[in-house]
Amino acid sequence: MTYILSADIGGTTCKLGIFDEKLDIVEKWEIATNKAGEGILENISDSFNVHLKKHDITLSDVLGMGIGVPGPIDFDNGIVHGAVNLNWTGKIEVRKIMQQYFDGPIYVDNDANVAALGEKFKGGGQNESDVVCITLGTGVGGGIVSNDELVHGHNGSGAEIGHFVVDHEKRFRCNCGMKGCLETVASATGVINLVHYYYSNMSVKSSIHDLITTKNVSAKDVFDAAKIGDEFSLFIIDKVANYIAYAASIMSVMSNPKYIIIGGGVSKAGDILIEYIKEHYEKMTFKPAKEDTEIVVASLGNDAGIIGAAGLIKTYVIDKENA
């Protein structure tokens, strides 16, 4: 039997896993992220060796290693162009460094891309060949899987969904330096941007008025209030959903996905957000492109990254060899 090693590197912890060829988990665990430079990669290798030994697996039984990293990636060469959360600056040759410890195939990709691949294989994507994942958290990330492969583009900027310009009034500045990005109106931060923009100009009084006026309101507060019928909070969710639907409609004519998967912390708002997105999406999307496309909630939670990192090996090693 052969196996895949998987690492999802985060700013606080690294999620690690051993998988079989079908992407079923043999074991998963976490280690603390060592932010002292490249030492984290050695720590990951050491941890893999301990857990492989526990299962009587040798490196010769391992088909490859997939790694997800929170930073911009040169996918073809396995290079990360800095990762702020890891204190990595400049070009970090992750593949080359890891090949000191493992000489099999190693694939490295952005954490949002690997999460999308995880959802494609084992989550909301139902193992379809064409899916899009939009991750709504502090920012907005995502990934596009087209014809079973991730979209990277010529310099790695493909599928930067959070930086679609959807707010054409360009009211809020994004961390990228531009204004009007999806991230400024659909992330947890974006929800609050909209709350403060609209509340002082509306006559309606919200049940979370005190939180809003003291600037202590969170996106969760807004969604919780909406679920019990708060008029202003429902107005905000409708605005957020409209922007997400607009981005989804563009992706539908670009890659025509079977599933558009909504993930991240903001997606935990649940059915209320999804239903609003569907309503707007239905009205604005080119009819042939939306036919049979489903908008669904991500289902893997924190396991999406390690499943997707293992999925890199399934996609670019196993499936290529079997093609």
From TrEMBL:
The keyword Metal-binding does not apply. Keywords: ATP-binding, Kinase, Nucleotide-binding, Transferase. Its EC number is 2.7.1.2. This is Glucokinase. GO terms for molecular function: glucokinase activity. Pfam families: ROK. The keyword Kinase applies. InterPro entries: ATPase_NBD (IPR043129), ROK (IPR000600), ROK_cs (IPR049874), ROK_glcA (IPR004654). It comes from the Bacteria. Belongs to the ROK (NagC/XylR) family.
